[in-house]
Amino acid sequence: MKRIQYIFIALFLLIFSGNTYSQDLDALLNAETKPTIDYATATFKASRIINGHSIEQMKKRQLDFRISHRFGPLNDGAYGLFGLDQSKIHFSLEYGVTDWLMLGVGRGSLNKTYDSFAKFRLLRQSSGVKWMPVSLSYFTSVELNTLKFQDPTRTNYFSSRLAFVHQLLIARKFNDKFSFQLSPTFIHRNLVKTELDMNDVYAMGFGARYKLSKRLSLNAEYYYNYNPNNKFQDTKYYNSASVGVDIETGGHVFQIMLTNSLGMREGSFIPQTTDNWFDKGIHLGFNISRVFSFQKDR
Q1: DSSP category for residue 194
Q2: Residue 101's beta-bridge partner residues?
């Protein structure tokens, strides 16, 4: 009789302990499957698609030193070594003040231009608890042309040399390989060459990236420039169009491109591209990015 009692007691303890273990396991699984927010990362490889800014920006306490070159047009022919005898350079320092604010200063040899900019992250593409279909940033810059003033009939004001750029960067990473960005743009130039040149310029940028491998991607960029006076002007301006590849090698990102734009700032390549792809007005160019981190080790 006692043996039967011991068996019932043992079964009761086993069932009770099993129920407790099951409750603990359920609690652990619930904790591990707590809903989270998954943010899209690496929509583009660098802070530029080709000439224009991408949605990407430096993280907090990261410094990006960039050097960019654009050579002369291929239609220079063999005498100009198909453009390689000429070169324009732009270099800049760009810093992540916070994860949502990036500042930069630079200088370009085209029109001896100094520039500074700020890029604010407003929205991040995400899934999970918080769903956001796109990433959104606001970009603004000011550019200063320091060429010697050539027109004696006009007063040379400092403010006349300034141009201002405002852009919204709207991007979506559709999958691990393909990303796309729209860049509605407004540019104001305080002084223009002729009455037919517009002080205010409106444009729409289109940019895309297709990832070919872990370290290699193909990029394309196009800016449609609204310019109703173009057909009446002596100097014809064309929409900026570019294709290129990104190559990542550790801390460097190399961007190699073909473009009809010689300028490397929004105030130059969007409203002042004078070369035409269909006339072999194509420039070989490259961007080199080297990132330094000042984030303290934890």
Answers
A1: S
A2: 120
What is the percent of the chain with per-residue pLDDT over 90, rounded to a whole number? 67
| C-alpha distances out from residue 54 to 70, 73, 96, 209, Å | 19, 25, 15, 10
Tell me which residue of 293, 206, 218 sits closest to 255, measured CA to CA.
218
First-residue to last-residue Cα distance in the chain: 66
Total Cβ atoms within 10 A of residue 131: 10
The pLDDT tens digits of the residues spanning 271-288 come to 999 999 998 899 999 999
Contact 137, 119 (CB under 8 A): yes
C-alpha to C-alpha distances, 99 to 47, 86, 96, 134, 174, nearest whole angstrom = 13, 38, 6, 17, 23
Name 64's Cβ contacts closer than 8 Å, sequence gap at least 6: 47, 58, 92, 93, 94, 95, 104, 289, 290, 291, 292
Q: H-helix or E-strand containing 278?
A: none
User: Model-level pTM?
Assistant: 0.85
Of 53, 255, 91, the closest CA to residue 169 belongs to 53
Q: Supply the DSSP string of 104-119, one letter for each residue.
A: EEEEETGGGEEEEEEE
How far is C-alpha 21 from the geometric centre of its chain's CA atoms? 52
122's CB contacts (< 8 A; 6+ apart) are 100, 136, 137, 138
CB 43 within 8 A of CB 53: no
Average pLDDT of span 202-223: 96
Q: For the chain, which domains are there? A: 50-293 (2.40.160.40)
